[in-house]
Structures are given as C-alpha cells and as structure tokens.
Amino acid sequence: MKYGFIRRHEDEFSITPMCRVMKVSRSGYYAWRERPASDRAGRDRELLRQIQQVHAASRQAYGAKKTWLELNEQGIPCGKHRVARLRKQAGIEARRKRRFRLTVENHATAPAAPNLVQRQFQVAVPDRIWVGDMTFIRTRQGWLHLAILLDLFSRRVVGWSMSERPDLALVLNALNMALEQRQPERGLIHHTDQGTIYAARAYRERMQEYGLLPSMSARGNAYDNAVAESFFGNLKNELVHHSDFVSRDAARAAIFDYIELFYNRSRIHQSLGYVSPARFEQMKGVA
Prior knowledge:
alpha/beta
C-alpha cells in the first residue's frame, strides 16, 4: 500500500515529496504511522528479534549491511534500510574497533627473505599464499601467545597454535597443523614479518622440506602483512578486549571457538562477497 511504501523508504527520501508523488496527505501518513500496535508493528518486533539473534551470533561485529545480508541468507526477506532503522531504534551498534599494537619484531638475526607478495592479497586459487603472524593475549595467569597461518584465497585460518611462550615450538605447531590439514603443492609462498622465530633454521628447514617459499615484509612495515594483522585486530575487537580470561585454558577455549566455529565457518567477509571462508571454499569447490 502507499503508506507502506513511504514507510519503507523514509530513511532514503523526504516524506513530503513521497506523499506528493503517492498522492496522499502528510497528515494521513503520520496518522497511519502512529496507529497502535498492528500487523506492521508485530512484523517489526519479529524482525528486531531476528536482528538481535544475528547481532549476538556475530559477537556484535556486524553493522547494518552485514546484518541485512545475513538475514537474507537465512531466508528472512527484509530491506536494508528497515534493518538499519530497527537497529538504530533498539540502540544496536557494532563494537567499535580499537587500535591494536602491532607484533612486528625488528631484530631478526637471520637474513630476511624477499617480499614475494608485494601487498597482492587477492589470490585466485587456494593454498598459493599463506600469511602468518603472532600475537599475545592477557589472562589472569599471564600471557598466552597465539600463532596463525591464513590462506589468502579464502581468508581461512589453516593453522594455529597457542602457548605460554612465544618460541619456535609455537610457530612450528601452527605450520605443522596447516601442512597436515591442507597438504599444499610445492611452491606455496609463506609470508610473515621479519620476526626472529620465522627466520630460525628449524623453521626454514621445515618449510624447505615441503617446498614452501619464504617471503617477508619490509622491516617494521605492518602493511606488507595487512591481512594477518587485520585478523588479529578482529580477534581482539570481537573477543579479547571484551573478555576477562581467568586462566590460559579459558582463553584457549574461547580462541578455539572464535577461530574454528565463528571466524572460519560463520563470519562473513566483504572481500569474499559477504560469505564466510568455509562457505567461500565450498562455493569454489575446495575439498
């Protein structure tokens, strides 16, 4: 109906011109809009409930556009502006991103590998370029260190490891997990910053065994490894900064859940056409 059309588009256009085009009075429209609870209000309440469910499932990470896309993916037809209006009325906001401290080390003792990626982060096939990095998470027991390897093709975390110490075993465990899960062909580019651990002989030997080509960012330049840094920024914004981990085990459990159940399988990515890494790989026929 005419009033419904105006209601759906009042966030896009001024009400007066729409009333003129639809040949209805402004007073009539406002009277219709202010009526007591009706089917329209009931539909809004139901949609708001569904919006709240998506908001909670996304760990409060999604804004209006991603919420709208997720609702449509679930088979819930709704307009983007209607979703934005209901979120605003209910005070639903995505968590604001905090600036995160980079984890780049500037004292590598082994020769740095050349930068084979050159910030070309869009990759057409899986397991062609992995990017890796490390970060740390505060718990009441002390620091917990996390190392990850991420496939640029799908943005999927293919290897990860957690430990009390930021040592060689930490990054080797993440590498071994990725190798076991993905079994890449020789020639895969393995890109990291110039941290000492990634230049360690044992790590380089493991890479050489599987035919991985080492690649490193320019010293101290986080933009050369922006995708890995972005992952840690999201992890901290969507989980770590809003958690008080009583123990390292509690942090391990939460981070496992974030990586394997949320990030890899559910969290939609703009760079992937607003689907999750797992869904993107499924669409592309990756086993």
